[in-house]
Specification:
Shape of chain B: elongated
CATH class of chain A: Mainly Beta
Low-confidence stretches of chain A: none
Strand order of the largest sheet of chain B: 2-3-1-4-5-7
Distance between the termini of chain A: 18 Å
Number of strands of chain A: 6
Strand content of chain A: 35-45%
Low-confidence stretches of chain B: 1-18
Distance between the termini of chain B: 43 Å
Oligomer: heterodimer
Strand order of the largest sheet of chain A: 1-6-2-3-4-5
Structural class of chain A: alpha+beta
Shape of chain A: globular
Helix content of chain A: 10-25%
Bound molecules: guanosine-5'-triphosphate, magnesium ion
Number of domains of chain B: 3
Mean pLDDT of chain B: 87
Chain lengths: 79, 703
């Protein structure tokens, strides 16, 4: 893994990141693809839930909340 | 989310018995689209029906059918559940995909969200691969305009090769044009040359080869390119359905495809679709204001913030109860004056007409009185609470609740969307149980179903409110009284949520072992609720529904109570005998035999528990007039109630078996009596355990 790549859940709120690789497999991979998360997609981390997890992300104009388990399967590069 | 025949189990049985479709005359039109784009709103506007709508993804989980006429033709409209894509395997996607493929609709309308066109185009492109008879409806045009998003509809139509209509489904703008275009597409009067996504040369080459082999067996009943793509994808479920539909076997073709890595292929396919959508969107959408979502973000900064998120939630909940309590007082008093006034007239009518006295007693003192109780005490809070909840739903607040609370659900190994099904449970547990279909994983769905009754439904609120008002608030009056009552009821709800989490956790580590599955939760934009429509619809729906149920359930219950109170064995009425039988056990729980019996007889509907109890106490003699909460308090106190009894009744009201309708719905949803029985046992045991503990501790302390 390239050193510049982070799992998405580590991105601080407010920051933009670009998807480099999807690690998830099977159904959860499909679900990410359905939302338009592919290599090159730009995602912004918006806010964390008051209870600590999930985090809301802006993905292609929609606000989607992902638990850290899911987000950690998306490798991104900070922009 | 309402407690209407449509949303409870009563109609779940009907949902699949589609209305009689006459293939000669009826034109079948399917409504597909991403979640929360306004499909049900379009459906309602066209058919004049009242399919439930709400500002969150996954509102519609069942398929609804309705009719409309346009020109001189009859159309049957099918409201499908919303899906982001048709490539995955969730239940809703299967329903939608199978309907579009095999249901033979003469046209498919894809409803899209004008403010999020790019992502919506994903699905449009996938549907265009399946069928040529497509109309793209770009909905929410008003919202797009407000956010300064411009969409070149003509250009979009040119690129996609199918008609595109811009609409505002709430106001009805553009719907006439939509109907016109749908008619033309169904009659094949418009040239259609749908856009096909171009995949990389390797995939295109394989597709071409497969198409060659299957052309004969597909026989133009389905789109060969699409079937080839599915074979390439080797998606078992859909291939089986295709084989069944075409009465053929693709085993041979599939065997030759074995050497492809389908995970990579699928990635390439999806990537091409997403990129194409991106390109098209770039050509037709322009943003006049890049920061159009700022306001939503500001609201979210408060409603989902670390410090204010959860307190705001509690305050909102409390506010709803307070409005319900305050608001219900006046109509409650008016209705009770009216109905008990009529009772007097009915009595004199009976007595003057030489009918036997027992007939008067059965009908006036038994049946009529119970009805009057349900209507005057139970109906007003139900009719006020419900629209308030719907208001929050329409605003888009419910997904934020799920967002705020998700971590607790994760720790309980439950699904994040369980919070949404709980919110629906506030309206009606049966509706909440059906709503559990939004949860894909069978394990987590069962947990959500089994614990749904831990949130008190609309039919239980009035009981909680009445008892909280007369007992917890003590001798205080006015504002203090309603505030204390509000705090009490809010506390009860919080307890219900905590119990849900505990029960979910226990289930997850015993009979429903497993880890939480992956899920994604969309937080929709806040929308101005349709206040007028909500008030009219939900008050109206609610009133009709409660009245209907009062006649069906409360009247017979009243009759039964009267009979039990008046048939005597050895000088004791049946009612007393039964209550005495239950008394020792009830006493352990800090209740009495009559209370426990009221809960048992209230199985058909929670809103009759309190009226049954009142009738039982009154039938034993002392009091005839009962006009105010004060009188109710006296009645209860004279039957031995203390504050401990009140606490226990509230606890037991929160935690006991779900009503009959809910149980039948659970049986239908789980297809198992075992789970249904468990759904009955779990909350009941929890209630018994809690009331027992509280009672014994308090008694030990010597209060
Ligand atoms: N402003 C505006 N709001 C709309 C329009 N159409 C629908 N809505 C609102 O959008 C929300 C979602 O509408 P629904 O009809 O429930 O959406 P749906 O596509 O059936 O959603 P699912 O059943 O979850 O797939 C509701 O709050 C509607 O009132 C529109 O044209 N303009
Ligand atoms: Mg819907």
């Amino acid at each position: 893994m390239d050193n510049n790549y982070f799992p998405l859940h580590l991105i601080p709120c407010g920051k933009l990141a670009q998807v480099k690789e999807l690690l998830a497999a099977g159904n959860s991979r499909r679900r990410m693809l359905d939302l338009g998360v592919i290599t090159g997609t730009v995602i912004q981390a918006l806010r964390r839930s008051p209870s600590g997890d999930p985090t809301a992300y802006e993905i292609r104009g929609a606000v989607i909340a992902l638990r850290s388990e899911e987000a950690s399967q998306i490798l991104v590069e900070l922009l | 989310m309402g407690l209407t025949a449509q949303s409870t189990g009563l109609s779940a049985s009907k949902e699949m018995i589609d209305l009689q479709i006459n293939p000669e005359q009826d034109i079948v039109v399917a409504l597909a689209g991403n979640p929360n784009t306004g499909k049900s709103t379009v459906f309602n506007s066209l058919t004049g029906l009242n399919q439930h709508t709400g500002n969150w993804t996954g509102k519609t989980v069942t398929t609804a059918y309705g009719r409309y006429k346009y020109g001189d033709m009859n159309f049957v409209l099918v409201d499908l559940p919303g899906t982001y894509s048709l490539l995955s395997n969730s239940v809703e996607e299967e329903i939608a995909r199978d309907y579009i493929c095999f249901g033979n609709p003469q046209a498919t309308v894809v409803v899209t969200d004008g403010t999020r066109l790019e992502r919506n185009l994903n699905l449009v492109l996938q549907i265009l691969e399946m069928t040529d008879k497509v109309v793209v409806c770009v909905n929410l045009m008003d919202e797009a305009k407000r956010k300064k998003i411009q969409i070149d509809l003509d250009n979009l139509a040119r690129i996609l090769g199918v008609p595109v209509v811009g609409t505002n489904a709430r106001s009805g703008q553009g719907l006439k044009e939509l109907m016109e275009v749908v008619q033309k597409v169904a009659q094949e009067k418009l040239p259609s040359k749908p856009f096909k996504v171009n995949y990389n040369s390797k995939i295109e080459e394989i597709i071409r080869q497969i198409e060659e082999k299957i052309k004969a067996s597909v026989n133009s009943k389905l789109n060969t390119r699409w079937v080839s793509l599915k074979l390439l994808d080797r998606d078992k479920a859909i291939i089986n359905s295709i084989e069944k539909y075409l009465e053929t076997d693709f085993g041979q073709v599939l065997a030759q495809l074995d050497n492809f890595d389908n995970e990579t292929l699928r990635d390439q396919i999806v990537t091409s679709i997403v990129k194409t959508a991106e390109q098209i969107s770039r050509q037709v959408v322009s943003f006049g204001n890049k920061k159009h979502n700022e306001l939503d973000k500001k609201i979210d900064d408060i409603l989902t913030s670390k410090t204010f998120g959860i307190p705001t939630m509690l305050v909102l909940l409390g506010l709803i109860f307070w409005l319900t309590i305050e608001g219900a007082n006046i109509p409650s008093q008016a209705l009770s004056d009216l109905l008990f006034g009529i009772e007097g007239k009915l009595s004199s009518l009976f007595l003057s007409s030489n009918l036997p006295g027992w007939l008067h007693d059965i009908f006036v003192l038994g049946v009529y009185r119970t009805l009057a109780w349900v209507i005057s005490v139970m109906l007003p809070p139900m009719a006020i609470f419900f629209p308030l909840l719907t208001l929050l739903e329409d605003l888009g607040y419910l997904p934020r609740i799920a967002f705020n609370l998700d971590n607790f659900f994760k720790k309980a190994c439950a699904h994040g969307k369980q919070a949404l099904t709980m919110c629906m449970g506030f309206g009606c547990n049966a509706a909440g149980v059906i709503g559990c279909r939004i949860i894909d994983s069978p394990r987590e769905r069962l947990i959500a179903i089994l614990t749904n009754a831990f949130v008190p439904c609309n039919g239980r609120f009035p009981t909680l409110i009445a008892i909280a008002t007369i007992f917890m608030a003590g001798s205080s009056r006015g504002l203090t009284q309603s505030l204390i009552a509000t705090l009490t009821v809010t506390g009860v709800i919080v307890l219900g949520v905590v119990m849900t989490l505990i029960a979910s956790r226990i289930l997850s580590s015993t009979i429903l072992k497993g880890l939480p599955s992956s899920f994604t939760l969309e937080l929709p934009p806040y929308r101005k609720p349709q206040i007028g429509r909500i008030i009219v619809r939900s008050i109206f729906d609610r009133t009709i529904f409660v009245l209907g149920r009062a006649v069906v359930v409360a009247a017979p219950a009243g009759l039964l109570i009267w009979i039990m109170a008046n048939i005597k064995l050895n000088g004791l009425s049946l009612l007393s005998i039964s209550a005495n039988f239950l008394q020792p056990f009830a006493n352990l729980l800090g209740l009495d035999g009559y209370i426990l019996m009221a809960f048992i007889l209230g199985l058909p509907a929670n809103e009759i528990v309190m009226p049954i109890l009142i009738m039982s106490y009154m039938s034993m003699g002392t009091m005839i007039e009962l006009e105010s909460l004060e009188a109710l308090r006296n009645l209860l106190v004279s039957n031995g109630w203390t504050w401990l009894t009140a606490v226990n009744v509230m606890l037991f009201c929160l935690l006991h078996f779900p009503c009959g309708t809910t149980l039948l719905t659970i049986r239908k949803e789980t297809k198992s009596w075992k789970w249904t029985l468990l759904a009955l046992v779990i909350p009941t045991l929890a209630g018994i355990a809690l009331t027992f503990t509280v009672t014994q501790v308090v008694r030990l302390l010597g209060y």
